[in-house]
Specification:
The protein is mostly helical. The protein has six helices and no strands.
Length: 112
């Protein structure tokens, strides 16, 4: 994956770089390495691509999920709200975002 990121960066392919960084983050997240995943999701979020709102929202949701898994619920909700502002016109993304926001609310409710 690291080669994919480097190839996209060298070839000046910002959408490919954004997606590759998110995939690297997803790999770390799937192994429970949330700190490393967060680093890559943040790098992906920093790559701005016109017309890639779906990819941007997906990355932000994954970032929020990492914080949720670390029980950092304020940060998780911050990134879910940011994803919501990016994906305002994408119903599929909005369903996923609201589902994750509700999950945080349930986790907080259970902690009371």
């Amino acid at each position: 994956m690291q080669r994919s990121v480097a190839a996209c960066a060298a070839g000046k392919l910002p959408q490919g770089k954004k997606y590759a960084l998110a995939l690297v983050g997803l790999g770390y997240s799937s192994k429970g390495e949330f700190k490393r995943a967060i680093d890559y999701f943040r790098l992906s979020d920093a790559v701005h691509v016109d017309g890639a709102d779906g990819d941007a929202a997906y990355c932000l949701v994954l970032l929020g999920n990492c914080y949720r898994e670390r029980a950092d619920y304020d940060s998780a909700n911050f990134f879910y709200r940011k994803a919501k502002s990016v994906a305002a016109n994408d119903a599929g993304s909005m369903i996923n975002i609201y589902k994750n926001m509700a999950l945080v609310d349930i986790l907080l409710w259970k902690k009371q």
